[in-house]
Amino acid sequence: MDKMKAAVFTEPGNIELMEIEKPQVGDRQVLIKIKYCGICGTDMHIYNGVYSKDKLPLVAGHEFSGVIEEVGKEVKAFEIGQRVTGDINLTCGMCFYCRKNQPFMCQEMQQLGIHMDGAFAQYIVLPEDKVFQIPNKMSFEEAALLEPISCVVRSAKSYDIKIGESATIIGDGATALLHVQMAKISGASPIIVIGLDENRMKKAKELGADYVLKSSASNIEQVKELTDGRGADVVIESVGLKVTYEQAFNLVRPGGKIVAFGLSDDSCKIEVKPLDFILKELTMIGSVAGAKNDLADAISLVQHNRFSLDDYKNNIVPLADISSAFERLKTDRSILKILIKIDD
Question: What is the sign, positive or negative, of the torsion defined by CA atoms of 137, 178, 156, 51?
């Protein structure tokens, strides 16, 4: 069997560069030679032992771009040499949930780099229907950012903000700043960001936030003041902590929407009064990731320069240094994203 280089997460806090078997292409599959793969917050959780601990050893990584190197004998839509990315959600495609465009509910759903080996490797194999061609003018670095953008695209579709409605984003991380840009694209006004890091809050302002607030006990009054005393029409929680989820219920206006996006620890529980849901007619929406159509829409948005991505692609590290990249992300808040360069 042919071999390839891959970064294998052997146990929490440990990544080893190994030679493992190169995946073989099935009849309706495509072999992709990886160019770049971004480090996602989920990858950090895997590294820290929060997620996928039962799947180790595992090749993580799911924010990727690459070039088709081989196609199965029944593949008709793609050919060798095409520049591509892919939908990481592998489902049955036939069940009730798949047909309802709720792929994350599919009992057979597996995600590349989370439940099965992913793209911190020289090659991956994907089914033909999960592969998306990227425009020639789009860089491989930009294409490696399409997966997280597809996540905020799907989220925006779910909360369906109307032009002129207010959005408050809790968090100042890499994905929170994508939510800022998505809210601006959607016509939200005003856009309010609550964060902790001064530099990231400044960046949020540059990317479209109308107001940035340092996280504090006075945020509820501040948000109400900025929304004519009501509270935000939509509150997007992008942190994943008990305190910030409970804060969201105090920031949203009566009749408004709370978007649960930030991944929390499995033990996290929040205290909510059902009476508040009833009397205030609140809506809470869960949004976990992007899927097929969301990725296509993300490609269109990036292709037409709707997202500013320069700060997401200015930290590029070779595969050999992936362990140090994960350690840097644990402590250096000045870094929004690190892209791992796979193909030498």
Answer: positive
